[in-house]
Write a structure and sequence with these properties.
Blueprint (H helix, E strand, L loop, with lengths): L14 H13 L25 H31 L3
Amino acid sequence: MAITVSPVQADLATYEGVEKFYSELRSAGRPLEIVALNAGVGVGGDFTRETDLEEELDIINVNVTSTVHLAKRVLKTWWRRTRAGF
């Protein structure tokens, strides 16, 4: 069984970045059989004194928002394909 890997550079902290990543998945022309939605980042330091709010909001965008966004796109496509009997 041959496996093809194609790198995609996208900023998952943004709506546009998630859409770009999903578009790249779709443009491969192959049905998606499995996906691991595990992108994530973190920041260290004292929450009240040493970390930046904007950086923390970007972390939420990557770790939570982009995962939900991408899952919605991928699972909706997968559901339509499997319900259609392909």
